[in-house]
Predict the structure.
Amino acid sequence: MLLYVGAEDCAPCRAWQNGEGVAFQASAEFQRITYREIKSPHLLDVMKDENWPDEIRGYRDSLRRSDGVPLWLVVADHKIVEQRFGAAEWRARILPAIKSLLR
């Protein structure tokens, strides 16, 4: 599973969603994974319970207040295998981790 965490009022989040996020959703890799999004209306509300469905709320426990968005969690067998934030981390760590797991 790929879990994306972002906010509507976050410019880097919108840039990823409208750019690399759209491209990823059109990729062959995307068709092979479970994708979930946590998108809060405001950056300061990202951690609030109402933005996290019960079935994935447990993953929020791995986040620190200092973590920024956009943020991705790569989850395999219900365990976080990669967790990064910041637009540059998408290409540097998250996408390679997904591709490696799908081999």
